[in-house]
Amino acid sequence: MVPGQYYLVLSAAVFCIGIFGLLTRKNALLFLMSVELMLNAANINLVAFSYYWGNVTGQTFGLFTMALAAAEVAVGIGIILVLYRNFDGVDVTKATTMRW
To answer: Which residue segment(s) compose the domain that 92 sits in?
Structure first.
């Protein structure tokens, strides 16, 4: 049986990789992938705590988080397509003309 601390360490590592990707990349697709990593880290925590406490509430919230991630990807891909169409690339530093 795997101890619960291993799941928490895995979740923290995945979350830190997502934060690192979010802070250091300029590509909008990599932004989207980094946010997905962070959401998956939250799901790992929810399921691990649900298993530890012996109820299914964390697993239920994990399913809601997956639905949220699917909606976020749909909106994010739409934004990335508009970014690519208007600025001929997915570099977020080129889109400064979209500001007020």
So the answer is: 4-98
pLDDT(52) > 60: yes
pLDDT of 41 reads 96
CATH code for the domain of 64: 1.10.287.3510
Phi-psi sector, 99: left (phi>0), alpha (psi -120 to 50), beta:
beta
Cα 99 from Cα 81, distance rounded (Å)? 18
Domains held by the chain: number: 1
Whole-prediction pTM? 0.85
What residues contact residue 69 under an 8 Å CB cut-off, 6+ apart?
A: 36, 39, 40
